[in-house]
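task queued by scheduler; priority normal; single chain, no ligands, no partner chains; default sampling; output format set to structure tokens
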Amino acid sequence: MDRLVKFACVGDIMLGEETSVGFGIRSLSEKFGYDFPFKYIKEFLSKFDFAFGNLEVPLTNVNLNEDLLQSVRFRGSPNFAPILKQSGFNILSIANNHSMQFGKAGLFDCINHLNKNGIKSVGLRDEQHRTKMETIKIHNQEIGFIAYSLQPSEEFKSESSILSFVQENSTDIIEDVKYYCRKVDHLFVSLHWGHEFVNHPSDFQVKLGRSIIDAGARGVIGHHPHVLQRIEMYNTGIIVYSLGNFIFDQHFPPCTQSIILELELDDTKIRNYKIHPVKSNKYYQPELANSSDVKRILSHIENLSTSFANTKVASFSSTECYLEELKLKSEFQRLQNIYFLKNIYKIRMKFILNYIFKKISNLVLRKSYFIKYFSLKKNLLDPANKHEL
């Protein structure tokens, strides 16, 4: 038998700044070196045959304007590309709601920087509108990766057709899986899906994840909720509903813990998997968790996983998950506002005014998560509204 392939999967990698603009991940890296975010995890990751993760931010300086908040947020430096390679990442998903943050030009600039450093990216569509597969061949095994985002693009929505965005018709995913699984020894499907901050999948996700395995995939690798969700061994495959944040400047406590999932493959199946708990420190650097955190995180995942181990579908509808998401987003927003006020002295005046204006606009336009939650809750309680989101 050929040697086992051992590779690592991580969650969301956000090498720009979301809540800490001007003093977050990118700013710290410009000051202390672009390997700063990977300082405590690089050696561990480099022991694997390769690593895979979700790159939540385009690495580009295209149309950069340092004076505009919207031009700085969710933007990573191209200088991170060689560091990602040195840290063991050979392949990354770019199918997510922030890849188009700076349009097609910014995305392809990012892909170019990754390519130059020997990093493959998955999530683009081909001429037939089928998602493109990228493969890694190691120890005589060919491992294929395809990627989709079930979350809409944040910006440049008119240009987003180049990426594998799937919202209404998930049957395209199943057809792609059936097509590609015959071409490789193992096929893994990366999905940007689910509900932010919610620690469990919806019934839709469970059905889709299991259908993907039934169609021939070896595994489903999920991200986007920013928190850990359950891991399920289903038939001959594995479904990881959410790996949580790997590198991210979110200060909501559940968002600061994650895992590195180690997968061992022989030539026909997943031989074994291991969970390596990770904690993010105050500088947003992931570190292998200490013994007490390891016990707590493993217990948390076990509780999430065993509670549904014998069910055919999850007991949470998409509507229930969405309501929970709005409630948790409202709490996240509250904590973010407190964090903003505590750190306002670190932020440039232009960014402060921009931030305040955006908050006021959201309230005026009734875009607050708090308002959305109670509006939707009221509608659902109305007997005339029986529809499901």
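post-processing summary
- Confidence is low (pLDDT under 50) at residues 383-389.
- The radius of gyration is 20 Å.
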